[in-house]
Design goal:
Pfam families: Aminotran_1_2 (PF00155). GO terms for molecular function: pyridoxal phosphate binding; transaminase activity. It is an enzyme of class 2 (transferase). This is Aminotransferase. The protein is 43% helix and 14% strand. The chain is globular, with a radius of gyration of 21 Å. The strands form three sheets. Strands 2-8-7-6-5-3-4 form a seven-stranded mixed sheet, with helices on both faces. The protein has a three-stranded antiparallel sheet with strand order 9-12-11, with helices on one face. The protein has two domains: 123 residues, Aspartate Aminotransferase, domain 1 (Alpha-Beta Complex); 231 residues, Type I PLP-dependent aspartate aminotransferase-like (Major domain) (Aspartate Aminotransferase, domain 2). It is α/β, with parallel strands linked by helices. Strand 5, helix 7 and strand 6 form a beta-alpha-beta unit. The protein contains twelve helices and twelve strands.
Length: 378
């Protein structure tokens, strides 16, 4: 967020800035969902919904899982929330007590750690590398296991790396945690935005233990970032607890956003989103090709989301200083890996390919000039 603030300040001073630090699609909301929200408001549908969310939207999400993921999900196990952050907050509040432990990969989305600490619980970070595509494995979870672990969090596709964990490995972890009476929290926020592979949900697998919680959102794949609408899917035993927490923390998710989400799950809207996914695929390939053309090796090509995690250790062992200087000298804004990783973050940066291909190419040209300057100084 520091780089984002500095980039905006430079823009206010009249500097041209290429924003590749923001984890937000550059597309506007689909017109059809804007119209749906307006129609709902014109009809006076602006009151609180039930704390679990509009029943018709919960049913529609269950149908979406059936058709999109081939997963059998009951609407009774779905709760709408103010963004995925709202889902994660109530889920962690439901399952954690003070001093409980949550295991997660390093690197990870930084808010995951902060939500755990907010509840006076403890984060156990497992250093993962490109050798496991920056994902946890059953072996790593078993090696890190200790008394007091209440849950393991896994994101697929992951922020900041864009990598996907294989479903077979994820199921093995779920079953191991079932034996340990611990929860598996799967962040599927970027599912749908996957490349050269079908979209996947852990819930499509058979014979799963009753310890799986899925977090998802309308922000990324559906392009509804500012609408602040997410959901969680949880076991039967947790639903009454989640409902009570929702009633006391935020009461209900935003009503206009829920009516808009009903529309975005229709066939024509999903077809429009598929076209956007293909654009992100083109951008990913353009960015990778441009970086490799200037001699940069990418440890892991992203499987999904819209992020590329780039190892800059050949030029710098301080990603914050690297990003700061790059912004000041070229106007290209990217995110230091230290925002996501305590272990190796100083050697990595995250590039969000949320701009048009020609802008990505120009950004890499400026990065190449910057790198050449570093080599000259050395």
């Amino acid at each position: 967020m520091k780089i984002l603030g500095q980039a905006r300040n430079l823009q206010q001073q009249g500097r041209e800035v290429i924003h590749l630090e923001v984890g937000e699609p550059d597309f506007a909301s689909l017109d059809c969902l804007n119209h749906a929200a307006n129609e709902a408001l014109e009809q006076g549908l602006s009151h609180y919904t039930p704390s679990l969310g509009l029943p018709e939207l919960r049913h529609k999400l269950a149908d979406f899982y059936s058709h999109f993921y081939k997963a059998s999900v009951s609407s009774n196990n779905i709760m709408l929330t103010p963004g995925a952050s709202g889902a994660l907050q109530v889920v962690l509040s439901a399952i954690l007590d003070a001093d409980d432990k949550v295991l997660m990969a390093d690197p990870t989305y930084p808010c995951n750690r902060q939500f755990v600490r907010l509840l006076n619980a403890k984060v156990l970070s497992v250093d993962v590398s490109h050798e496991t595509r920056f994902q946890l494995t059953l072996k790593l979870v078993q090696q890190a296991w200790q008394k007091g672990i209440k849950a393991v969090m896994i994101a697929s596709p992951a922020n900041p790396t864009g990598t996907v964990i294989e479903q077979a490995e994820l199921v093995k972890i779920a079953r191991f945690l079932g034996e340990k009476q611990a929860y598996l929290i799967v962040d599927e926020i970027y599912q749908g935005l996957v490349y050269n592979r079908p979209p996947e949900s852990i819930l499509a697998n058979q014979n799963l233990p009753e310890n799986i919680i899925v977090i998802n959102s309308f922000s990324k794949y559906f392009g509804m970032t500012g609408w602040r609408l997410g959901w969680c899917i949880a076991p039967d035993k947790l639903m009454p607890v989640l409902e009570r927490l929702a009633q006391n923390i935020y009461l209900a998710a935003p009503t206009p956003a829920q009516y808009a989400a009903l529309r975005v799950l229709e066939k024509d809207a999903l077809q429009a989103l598929e076209k956007r996914r293909l654009i992100f695929l083109q951008r990913r390939d353009t960015l990778i090709d441009a970086l490799e053309a200037i001699g940069q090796k990418i440890d892991c090509h992203p499987d999904g989301a819209f992020y590329l995690y780039w190892n800059i250790s050949a030029f710098s062992n301080n990603s914050e200083a690297f990003c700061q200087a790059l912004l000041e000298q070229t106007g290209v804004a990217i995110t230091p890996g230290t925002d996501f990783s305590d272990a190796q973050g100083k050697h990595y940066v995250r590039i969000a390919y949320t701009k048009e291909c020609q802008i990505l190419i120009r950004a890499v040209e400026l990065i190449a000039q910057f790198i050449q300057g570093l080599k000259t100084q050395a």
